[in-house]
Amino acid sequence: MKLWHGADYNYEQWLDRPEVLNQDFAAMKAANCNVMTVGVFSWANYEPREGEFHFEWMDTLLDRLHRQGMKAILATPSGARPAWLSTAYPEVLRVDVLGHRAHHSGRHNHCRTSPIYREKAAQLNDRLAERYGNHPALALWHVSNEYNGGSCYCGPCLTAFRSWLQERYKTLEVLNQKWWTTFWSHRFSSWDEIYPDDSSVNGMMLDWARFTSEQTIDFYRAETAPLRRRTPQVPITTNFHGPHVGLDYFAFAKEVDVVSWDNYPTWHTQESDTITAVKTAFLHDLYRSMKGKSFLMMESTPSQTNWQGISPLKRPGMHKLASIQAIAHGSNSVQYFQWRQSRGGEEKFHGAVLSHQSSMNTRTFQDVVQVGHELQNLDSVYEAAVESEVALVTDFENKWAIDLAQLPQSTDKRYEEELQLPYEVLWKRGISTDIVDTRPRDWGRFKLILAPMLYLVREDLADQWKPWVEQGGTLVLTYLSGYVDDNDLCFEGGAPGPLSSLAGLRVEETDALSPQMVQSFHYRGNRFPARHYADLILPTAECETVAVYDHEFYSGRPVLTCRKLGKGSVWYLATRSDSAFWSAFLADRCADAGVAPAVPWPIPEGVSVRRRGNTIFVMNFHPHEVAFSIGSGGEVIKLSGYGFQVLQAP
Ligand code: GAL
């Protein structure tokens, strides 16, 4: 079996219970597991006292996995540290904004700048690489666990931030200019005066977010240096999550050999599971697009989580369906957190393949067995590509800048929801979407680019897109785009800044609409709502008005425009509408751009169709059966509630 099936295996919690470990290995075989992630939180087992190392237990574990024909994803344990380390070197603990140092507790909360933490983590990683680099079970390094961009205001972090600023701006004069510090008398006369806790200096806070992300990536590089040196043949990943955890994952993805992510959808908590399916699909597509190739679903729960407030049991079929959804979107694995439920600690009620009952005769275990069987028959999709003709554009920096901005309409910014709207329409139509950032790339792969609410725009973006549009691309821009440059300074001339020449218009003013003030416009004879933001635009002569506002003093002014450019076109939507609008609008744009769905037949609501390589996955996210005909031959597909079928492309 080529796809991976496995779990986070906390073997070290059961070292004194050989009968439990024996059962684990028997159960792994029964569930057709071929990989285990090991050692994620094992620092205190490896090094119970400073400088005293114990690896025998991991030797035994890796040998045993190998004997059973399984692979190991071996973690480096920096996600949580032993108490002796925090006690001997308190500088490894983060300092909060008021200058208080944390106590030793929890995990994922070390200082990323601390030289001693870097040294201790690298030392241990070096020993792991030396000892296990050639172990036949070792397939992949899993570096640390779920890094995050949480802030630390300790002395070394502040010094590092100030040096980072010096590198970026060279002089205080430039920094003051770029941060527009004359506002409220915020001018800095010395680097040491800079303390990144002032939301009134937007540029500073954006730089602090960037620095924190970069410092985390730098910490990761320090951790991986010994692995790269000793085991250049072994690929490296770190498990992403979120996605909004204060990290620029597009930048981070360049540093890993394979993207992996932890997937915890909240099934059965919405009025329809389709809502959850769309959100989850979006995330799979986001992580796949980061490297433009297959990824790993490093974690998912085989049953319930214990940290989401309410986590209902997965209804029959849901586990298999959610696992197949990951594969359909490009995952090469279905992996779980966790293999065996722990008896103590914060996660003792988190679901596991083997629960406290320790039985293979449970619904969860049997679900996992079934996934193991399914994966066995899917060798043909391993490493197979998911091709997308549509790109949905989002930048983490854009999200940070939108969050920082105090706008006339700040209560309903809803950036993530605005990305979901067009995504959902495409999902329903069986059209695959890549979710990409604005860094230079081969845009030529796409026929349609959707870039809603691109508030922060790098100067080079219009130059990247112009030739692509001229060659026949269709670009869709919206309100709240092109407001600020990458220093968070507003563009002189106003929005949409450098995108103005592409769209052929300027924004004169933007109305802020309260939830009660719903305006409207007509597109192709149908009336659609205009909400929250309404740009009053000034189109140039090349820009055609396609739809106008129906209401208010700006009735008759353009709300949707199209500017033809070479063989392509640039659309501008001046307001926020709803999914009915996006559905009508994107049907037309996909038709103009020649974007084809995965299959020619109509897809019923709640059913998702994805193509990966030559395999077509048809998935029903309803709890009830759905039957529909495919093609003119009268052939009918029947999907049970939460059922799916795997077809071969003709
Ligand atoms: C993940 C984490 C795991 C475990 C899991 C529980 O975010 O990486 O260690 O805590 O959540 O759902």
What is the compact description of this entry?
This protein has 650 residues and is an alpha/beta fold.
The SS-based structural class is alpha/beta
Count of DSSP-assigned helices = 17
Strand order of the largest sheet: 11-10-12-13-19-18-17
Evaluate the radius of gyration: 26 Å
In total, how many beta strands?
Answer: 25
Q: What oligomeric arrangement do these chains adopt?
A: single chain
**Poorly predicted segments:** none
The level 1 CATH classification of the largest domain is Alpha Beta
| Biggest beta sheet summary | 7 strands, mixed
Overall structural domain count: 3
Helix proportion range = 25-40%
| Gross CATH architecture of the largest domain | Alpha-Beta Barrel
Question: Strand share of the residues?
Answer: 15-25%
Structure commentary:
With 650 residues, the chain is of the alpha/beta class. Helices cover 32% and strands 19% of the residues. Strand 1 (4-9), helix 1 (18-30) and strand 2 form a beta-alpha-beta unit. The chain starts with a strand and ends with a strand. Beta-D-galactopyranose is lined by residues 145-146, 241, 262, 264, 299, 305, 337, 347, 350.
Features:
single chain, 650 residues, alpha/beta, TIM Barrel, Rossmann fold, 3 domains, 7-stranded mixed sheet, 6-stranded parallel sheet, 17 helices, 25 strands, globular, binds beta-D-galactopyranose
